[in-house]
Fold this sequence. Notes:
This protein has five helices and five strands. The chain has a single domain, classed as NADH Oxidase. By secondary structure, the chain is α+β, with helices and mostly antiparallel strands. It starts with a helix and ends in a 20-residue tail after the last strand.
Amino acid sequence: MNVTEAIRARRSIRKFTGAEIPQEHLDAILEAAMLGPSARNMRPYEFAVVKDRALLKELSEACPRWYMAEGAACVIIVFARPDLEEGLGHEFWQQDCSAATENILLQALELGYGTCWCGVYPIAGRVAAIRRILGTGENSVPVSLIPMGVPAEHPAPRGHYDKSRVKYY
């Protein structure tokens, strides 16, 4: 699968078979996340991989939009660590975490897994819920929650290109 095929094939998956993901695949997915662009190479992020069924259920109940977490093989949470940044480029953690999130989605797709990018930050209640459930501190800001697993659904491809939203100068 080339990059164009991956971009066009990626869909948000909300139903999973329940099959586990091998550790070597999780390692490849997390390596891809860390290969994303980062302002001044600060890499102000860390990741949590949640496999525990009770925690997955608790996450799925913490926000109505995260219901699919309970049936996922795992959830990867991308945390920003603004405290790791210093000097110029110290306020780009949102972009850095978003690039890491997109790389997770694309690498997972290539390995045969479905994902769904669920937003966390900047919604205070969602941030607080993850911090409470996982016991993380104030230095870790959850940015995205990604349920992942073998897909049990295959939504049809859709095109979204809209020339009216492009301006050339």
